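User: Could you check the structure of this?
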Amino acid sequence: MSDKTAEPRVAPRAKSRVELVRGLGVWDGVLLTVGSVIGTGICLVSSDIAKVLPHGGMLLLVWLAGGLLSLTGALTYAELGAMFPRAGGIYHFLKEAYGPLPGFLYGWACFLVMMSGGIAAIAVGFGEYLGAFFPFSSTSNVLVSQTIGSWTWILSGVQVMAVAAILVLTAVNHFGLKQGAAVQNLMTVLKIGAILAVAVLGFLVPAKSTLGLTAPLPASGLLAAFGIAMIAALWTYDGWYGLTFSAGEMKNPGRSLPLGLIGGTAIITGLYLLINFVYLRAMPVEKMANESRIGEAAAALLLGPVAGQWLAAAVVVSTFGCLAATILYSSRIYQPMAEDGLFFRALSRIDPVTHVPARSLWAQSLWAVVLTLSGSYSQLYTYSVLVTLLFHVLAGAAVFVLRRSRPAAPRPYRVWGYPLVPIAFLAAMAVLLINTVVERPVESLLGLGLVALGLPAYVWLRRSNPRPER
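Assistant: Sure, the predicted structure tokens are below.
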């Protein structure tokens, strides 16, 4: 027998895996939710609603109903987000409830059109409002015009400023979650402050018009008009679900994610109602229908022309903040997809220094830049309306599917008012889905065609990227 004591065998050390940092608290979640939603719509959409529903009381009811329906969605997604507290949000809800194909198709549509096109649209909106202060950022400032066959490509100052905004905010987010969240939080606090300031001052000065809350209702067509107005309002609330994509970076997501979703949506609803009360104090609802930039017009009428310019500046800040929030949360979709072998493998890498999905972040933003420069983002984004609603229906129904298929799974938060609240959300999304098919049949078919393009991509990715063992 050897006199040497046998040394214990040590297993090879596993390569450490870089993870996202859980650095977002409840306050960050609330601000990210608010920042994801409030952009230019708060100063524009009331005019569109007034055109189809010229009644002060019904206009306010539309905004309240839109907020309550968005809240049913927030309550529903809060259960799913707390159940799957990982980066990716709706991608995980669909994958876990129905399998990898629906999850992939959602992520594919997000990258191709829904999120990237949304980033392009918000960035161009930012550039257009910036043009009120800097003439360079104007659609009339054409820098390049090139005719290619029957198509003319135009590069304007608006597009240049939009691209610059996308790249700057992407770079900020590249340096870390803390930096990206700090910029987004600052922009959101400023926009909330600006809206509250206008609301408070708007109530302190004498009204220029009666609210018209008890005016006689239209004799016919009220229900149809209310439905059309609701579509406009609900799209202005779009983005309330953005926090679910950052669930993998939430501290104590079982508590902070539901509070961030629900609290943020409640604040948005309150702000929309407040500002619309101010609009009605500034002018009759019939006149609102003729003011495309209702926010600036109302502020100028109540508080003077300087206030109108000040509100326009606030919209620039608001839109920049909305862009910051959208870039932050939507870039979290593709990294888990790539990790699951359902997207380009290179995008699965998390930067070991900044702990952000840097490649996913830049891939998304560079494609958004292409859409911005091509000028095609608006048309593509229109095609995605039906697709977005379809995935919301499937994701909302996942609550019922998973309660039946995984009854014993941990649920740190259970949706309040189950099953009525999720049913209300599903019903609202289904009605909007049907209305979109009826009103925009060609765009709806083209949107489904864009999603269908993902089917061969899915087959190829599944074959070439087998999921690695963990």
